[in-house]
Amino acid sequence: MNAVRLPVTRPPSTRIIPMTRRHIPRAVELEAQAYPRGWSRSVFRSELDQVGRGGRRYLAALEGRRLVGYAGLWVVAGTNGSEAHITNVVVDPERRRCGIATRLLVMLAREARESGVTGWTLEVRASATGAQELYRGFGFAPAGVRKAYYEHGEDAVVMWCHSIGDDGYDDLLDHLDQGDR
Q1: Span 14-177: which CATH code?
Q2: Nearest Cα to 120, choosing from 98, 87, 147?
Q3: Which residues of 24-45 are buried (b: 16+ CB within 10 A; e: fewer)?
Q4: Which of 18, 69, 142, 144 has the greatest count of CB atoms below 10 A from its CB?
Q5: What gap in Å lies between CA 50 and CA 160, rounded to an integer?
Q6: Distance CA 104, CA 97 (A)
Q7: What is the pairing mode between strands 81-91 and 117-125?
Q8: What angle do CA 29, 181, 85 make, to 5 degrees?
Q9: Residue 13: C-alpha distances to residues 17, 58, 109, 114, 137 (Å)
Q10: What is the pLDDT along the chain (181 residues), one digit of tens a residue?
Q11: Measured CA angle at 109 (ends 106, 111), to 5 deg
């Protein structure tokens, strides 16, 4: 069965900037809407304190001054280059299907490529088929399952993309950034 693609409407006022501590209160609200047990203020503070020196990167999507989404990445040096792990991608439920997650991931991917990342990974809820479709658009493919990874025993699908370091990946990011998918 083919998924129905809804048109992407992207308000021109959505800006993507580095996430800072001032975004934490709203990020905690969005976490509570997205997950039964989301990150706490202290977890966000700890993660943001590692930006720049601990391989962490966090981006915020703003409409006006309101945080409507955020995403994080952890870059780890490996034996064959660097790898990265997407820590989270969260968008306000009222702003989903508007291209915000795509824009956040495009910018994270560009930063990862600049850092020499050759592969990136993530875990996604088995029930989150829309998110899995989004990640497939970035070249991710299922690579395994973590049984009962999430609260209430839900499995996580482990996805990997090994083409982020390829020369043609910038073309894919340009295509995604233009909303052509």
Answers
A1: 3.40.630.30
A2: 87
A3: bebbeebbeeeeeebbeeeebe
A4: 69
A5: 24
A6: 13
A7: parallel
A8: 50
A9: 12, 20, 22, 26, 24
A10: 445 554 555 555 889 999 999 999 999 999 999 887 889 999 999 999 999 877 899 999 999 999 999 999 999 876 566 899 999 999 999 999 899 999 999 999 999 999 889 999 999 999 999 999 999 999 999 999 999 998 888 899 999 999 999 989 999 999 998 874 4
A11: 110
Q: Which of 136, 128, 129, 137 is nearest to 159 (CA)?
A: 136
Instruction: Classify the C-alpha dihedral 173-102-104-127 as positive or negative.
Output: negative
d(CA 143, CA 121): 9
- Tell me which residue of 99, 120, 98 sits closest to 108, measured CA to CA: 120
Spell out where 19-153 has E strands.
56-63, 66-78, 81-91, 117-125, 141-146
Find residue 73's DSSP bridge partners. Answer: 57, 86
In the chain, where the domains are located: 14-177
Predicted TM-score (pTM) of this structure: 0.88
